[in-house]
Amino acid sequence: MDNEQKTNVSSQSKNTALDLLGTFGRNLGLTLYALFALFPLVWMIICSLKLDSEMYNTVFVFSPTLDNYKAVLLGTDYFKAFFQNLIVAGGAVILTIVAGVPAAYALARYDFKKKEDLAFQILSFKFAPEILVILPIFTIFQRIGLYDTYFGLIWVYQLITMPLVIWVVRGYFEEISVEIEQAAQLDGYRWFDIFFDILVPLIKPGLVASALLAFIFAWNSFTFPLVLSGFKIQTMTITSLRYIASDTVHYGQVAVASLVAVSPEIIACLFIQKHLVRGLSFGAVKG
Amino acid sequence: MNETDNAPRDDRINYNEAPVSVRRRPYFIIAPGLLILIGILIPFAIAIFLSFTNFSFRSTSWRFVGLRNWSDAFADRAFYHAVWVTLRYGFYATLTQMVLGLVVALLLRKDTFYSRVLKVLFTFPLMVAPAIAVLIWQLMTSNSVGVLEGFLNFFGVFDFPWASSHATAMFTAVLIDTWVNTPFILLLVLAGIQSLPKSPFEAAQVDGASSWFIFKTLTFPMLKPFLYIALLFRVMAALQEFGIIFALSKGGPGDTLMNISLTGYITAFQFLRMGKALPYLLVLWMICYVAAWALVKRQRKLAKLAQGY
């Protein structure tokens, strides 16, 4: 965090005018990007509070109303899609952690034949074109009855979530010295004690950050639910397509739908903010 | 992180010399994760197999057609157009995001209250699903209720066509992609900046090196492993982009945004000709695989260099 350059160490103090200019430029740049990054979200909030009748003739000054929220949350099955999305994305992340963390451990700790190839292979799943994977899976799932089921979606979502978690967590395991484990073994710890009491706390930042990122990608996934879910299971992203396609445009409701879709991720992100940056080094400095 | 132990690390157990029961252990531990992924991998084999048939969702019967799907694809102008759109979109989107992400991360480097707050806020667009992001931007760019129309009018631009014109559709899609995904690069670069050692920078400062010189010779090379990871993830996603383009214009207007993913999807699900769609998607897969392989190889080499091996 603190590798800020102490710009005003000694000889540089005469450059105060230049420093001031630099500070100004930096803040200007940040403000410009902040406008680009945040204004669309602010505009969403504004639109969500506007009546359709005020949409065309007002910009920032209007009489706020919650009618749009009522219409979307009570009037449609958007809530249902919200919870179904939560089950699918949450389930996918949990399965990924249960199966992926041991795999990451093995890839970090043991030297076995073809290890690097295997590690790359796992990563490459993340980069397989989703549409390509989805076409055969669609036919298979329809035949074996996994089409439009929670399990089917959670399984397919592993392609998004698992490579990410394995890749990040592996970097963390690689940084833990094997002597810690050996010492604990000598002290009579059993392997699961070692794992849960010693290793898990050490990998926590990476695990939390990658799990959140995995959850975001799963929650936002578009292709998989578009093809693999039908009437029974609907996710937010697919449900929201309705608002694009429909001819009767209720802009306020579009805004509400967008905001509701984004809310759980932003809440989760705020909770684990401190881990987010720290945890995402992706083992990038590891050879 | 731990730049303290620079010694080469040979403290890993050499399982190649251990008894068989121990030697098998890593495979057991890795098995559940691998099985889940390989279960998904079977479709790849099936995809290759089906690309030699005239399989379609329309009928249950199918037969081998040999290489016809492949030769049809390679003879079709639409195929080369799709590859071109894919590469162009991948290039523009990745380049814009990499540059913007790096610049903003460097601007955030100075630890002030403003930058601490912005670090949190800047991650928000990443949370927005591509389809939702398209909704948001359509709301902003709409010529009737959109707020950007008034903004552009101020600069003397009227009725900017956004996604509805051949000339600006790619720009609009890349703009939305950039809005959503720049924070991803930002996060990775920030993680990289955090892990930079302090002493070389202090030494350069004492020697009175200019900030540009420090960036060129210290910061940028040291960030390279992180930039490669970011590049890898973004290139892959941009080459395959489907959600944003599908939600924005379904590949239109005309075939302006028809990249390989969209062409494949529409051929398979709209025209119901799966066999025809598969060669397109397999080519996309090959492009991605080769690009990922090259980037990962380079990244691990750089990471080793950065570690001083």
Which structural category fits the helices and strands of chain B?
mainly alpha
User: How far is it from the N-terminal to the C-terminal residue of chain A, by CA?
Assistant: 23 Å
Given the C-alpha coordinates, what overall shape of chain A results? globular
Radius of gyration of CA atoms of chain A, rounded to a whole number: 24 Å
* Cα-atom radius of gyration of chain B: 24 Å
Number of domains of chain B: 1
Beta strand % of chain B: under 5%
Question: Would you kindly provide a written description of the structure presented here, covering whatever features stand out?
Answer:
- The complex is a heterodimer of chains A (287) and B (309).
- With 287 residues, chain A is an all-alpha fold.
- Chain A folds into two domains: 11-48; 70-279, MetI-like (MetI-like fold).
- Helix content of chain A is 73%, strand content 0%.
- Chain A has helices at residues 16-48, 67-75, 78-109, 115-126, 130-144, 150-175, 178-186, 191-220, 223-228, 236-245, 251-271, 273-279.
- The model of chain B is unreliable at 1-11 (pLDDT under 50).
- Chain B has a single domain, classed as MetI-like (MetI-like fold, Orthogonal Bundle), CATH 1.10.3720.10.
- Chain B is built from 13 helices and no strands.
- Chain B has helices spanning 20-23, 25-50, 68-75, 77-107, 113-122, 130-141, 147-154, 169-194, 199-206, 211-239, 243-249, 260-270, 274-307.
- Chain B is globular and about 75 Å long.
- In chain B, α3 packs across α13, α8 packs antiparallel against α11 (243-249) and α10 packs antiparallel against α13.
- At the A-B interface, α1, α3, α4, α5 and α6 of A face α2, α4, α5, α6 and α8 of B.
